[in-house]
Design goal:
CATH topology: Rossmann fold
Largest sheet: 8 strands, mixed
Order of helices and strands: EEHHEEEHEHEHHEHHEHEHH
CATH class: Alpha Beta
Number of domains: 1
Number of strands: 10
Oligomer: single chain
Strand order of the largest sheet: 3-4-6-5-7-8-9-10
Helix content: 25-40%
Strand content: 15-25%
Radius of gyration: 18 Å
CATH superfamily: Alpha/Beta hydrolase fold, catalytic domain
Distance between the termini: 51 Å
Shape: globular
Structural class: alpha/beta
Amino acid sequence: MKSPAVWREMNQAELDAAYDQSKYAPNQPQVVKRFASNSEAFRVRSGAPERIVYGRTPVEGLDVYASRLAPPSGAPINFFVHGGAWRSGFARDYGFLAEMFVHAGAHFVVPDFASVQEVDGSLHPLAAQVRRALAWVYRHAKEIGGDPERIYISGHSSGAHLAGVLLTTDWQTDFDLPADVIKGGLCCSGIYELKPVGLSSRSSYLKITEDIERTLSPNRNLAHVQAPILLAYGSLETPEFQRQSVDFFAALRLAGKPVQLLLAEGYNHFEILETLANPYGLLGRAALVQMQLGDG
């Protein structure tokens, strides 16, 4: 007999598997190693990014890959939030994504932020850090040769969750910035409702309280969405990661927000991110069009 359902129709074992990428992406180690090695290869060709401090703790720094094609008015900026289940990953491992953007005339900025395990399992400090990092980029855009009126964000996996948090932030009230500080967002393979995450085996390192569910689940905070959003997921993702994107898309449409859903056929959770490094890939093409740097 099947054990009782924990979330929707899934029992505990099924839910745990649906939030465990290794069950659906056995090539995860190889692909993640490519992220790092391709990032290092790009730095060898182009030089190291500028490292800028945006906050008080040692982790709070930005890697800024500046385009040499920036116009006098300043380059558009893509602010990328990396994934890693909220507990791993570094900005330096995502430099491979910068090459496409800088060659298209955009700056590419990647923030570092705390591992959730370093902050007692709470997502609040991570959300606060990426918000402060984006606010820093807006306020100092001209100093790095960027255009503060052309800031776009992107994120993958848990980074797409944090990008969703950025897209649903009240920038006027909380940071005294324009409500539309973000001009467009691309969220890839993300989590937008935290309740099932707290019920899964990820609760071993995450503390998903009712307050965190309410305040940091992007699909519960749609009122402050000001920018068009691209949502993407792969056909080989876990069923829950696919559902998360589809449900967030439906919620945004119901709220009257501009949103587009992209399905990457034949890609798993990690492979899909590599298409963001390619101007002819599903995500790369979509990002450039959104930033008005390509014609689709």
